[in-house]
């Protein structure tokens, strides 16, 4: 799935532009396995992104230049993504036997039936899912669209940073692509199971449910690590940048764990439980087999145990790097710490091997 695509024969950087940081990952394929060639994260200034929209392109471009320099990669082509909240996904029914060009023409003719925006204001892509269960002469088609301004803003900041956007995807489909990398840590490789990925970002938590290897549900909720940072600011009377640095360095008072971290863990676990209830209400399922925690907050000590207790569901911290090798200059400890936050970047980097 790609809202924007240019031809590319070289490897792609997977670049995840989040609300508080930019994450970069470069992979190389070695047989059936992957090798991490470059991996880096760079914090964004406060309010560089507002509600997932790029509010300060100059600041985001500067951050991109820094993360590329820190990673020491020579690659300048990239795959990026818009958030799921900036995209529309619909399953539509179309006549069977049409070519891709014919499908595209039919979708354009009927776009006003499917999209709340004029066709000239959106970027769209589609994927044929298979024969329709309700009509033997039709196929189900997944249609994905996003307003051009969301796509163009991300392409633009890459251009400002001296990078070339070759693909613009949707974050939830990048998570779906990365799911294959999680098989080594799943019972039976995840076969025949319903797996929920909970990606806990700074301002948004995304629930993505994978069944038979395919994305069947996604929903974003306004909750994330920023609440923990704000709790640190309020508790200790320190500014945002200092609160972020103190959390990263573990330089907080002895009461941090009990007075600040524990309430945040409990609130996050309740949020995950609530997200699952929305999924159950919207589907035929009343349980999932496994929860995988991703995103920057997934590495917080005790998060998996808190979620497991609140939901009654087996819970693991996602590690897409588990079966990978890495360049010798990449510290293993740092990769292990960064792995849960790199799931979207992994999915984007994998596009270069399609």
Biggest sheet strand order reads: 1-11-7-2-3-4-17
What is the level 1 CATH name of the largest domain? Alpha Beta
* SSE class: alpha/beta
Question: Which sheet architecture does the biggest sheet show?
Answer: 7 strands, mixed
Strand content: 25-35%
- Give me the CATH fold name of the largest domain: Nucleotidyltransferase, domain 5
Total beta strands: 17
> What's the architecture of the largest domain, going by CATH?
2-Layer Sandwich
Backbone CA Rg: 20 Å
* Helical stretch tally: 11
Provide the low-confidence segments as ranges. Answer: none
CATH superfamily of the largest domain: ATPase, nucleotide binding domain
Q: Please estimate the helix content.
A: 25-40%
Arithmetic mean of pLDDT: 90
End-to-end C-alpha gap: 11 Å
What is the total number of structural domains? 2
Q: What does the overall shape look like?
A: globular
Q: Give the H and E element order.
A: EEEEEEHEEHHEEHEHEEEHHHEHEEHH
């Amino acid at each position: 799935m790609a809202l924007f695509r240019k031809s590319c024969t070289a490897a792609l950087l997977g670049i995840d532009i989040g609300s508080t940081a930019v994450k970069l990952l470069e992979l190389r394929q070695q047989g059936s396995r992957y090798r991490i060639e470059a991996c880096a994260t760079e914090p964004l200034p406060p309010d560089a992104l507002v509600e997932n929209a790029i509010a300060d392109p100059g600041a985001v471009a500067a951050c991109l230049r820094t993360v590329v320099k820190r990673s020491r990669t020579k690659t300048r082509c990239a795959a990026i993504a818009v958030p799921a909240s900036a995209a529309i996904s619909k399953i539509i029914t179309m006549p069977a036997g049409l070519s891709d060009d014919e499908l595209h023409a039919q979708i354009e003719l009927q776009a006003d039936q499917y999209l709340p925006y004029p066709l000239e204001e959106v970027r769209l892509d589609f994927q044929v899912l298979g024969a329709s269960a309700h009509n033997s002469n039709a196929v189900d088609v997944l249609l994905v669209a996003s307003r051009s301004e969301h796509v163009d803003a991300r392409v633009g900041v890459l251009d400002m940073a001296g990078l070339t956007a070759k693909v613009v995807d949707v974050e939830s489909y990048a998570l779906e692509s990365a799911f294959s990398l999680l098989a080594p840590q799943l019972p039976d490789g995840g076969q025949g199971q319903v797996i929920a990925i909970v990606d806990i970002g700074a301002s948004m938590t995304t629930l993505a449910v994978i069944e038979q290897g395919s994305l069947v549900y996604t929903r974003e909720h306004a909750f994330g690590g920023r609440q923990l940072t704000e709790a640190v600011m309020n508790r200790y009377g320190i500014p945002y940048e200092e609160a972020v640095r103190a959390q990263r360095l573990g330089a907080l008072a002895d009461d941090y764990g009990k007075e600040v971290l524990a309430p945040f863990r409990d609130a996050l676990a309740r949020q995950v439980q609530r997200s699952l209830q929305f999924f159950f209400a919207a589907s035929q399922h009343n349980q999932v087999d496994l929860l995988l925690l991703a995103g920057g907050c997934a590495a917080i000590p005790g998060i998996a145990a808190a979620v497991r207790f609140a939901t009654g569901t087996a819970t693991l911290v996602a590690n897409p790097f588990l079966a990978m090798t890495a360049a010798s200059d990449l510290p293993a400890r740092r990769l292990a710490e960064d792995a849960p936050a790199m799931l979207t970047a992994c999915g984007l980097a994998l596009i270069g091997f399609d």
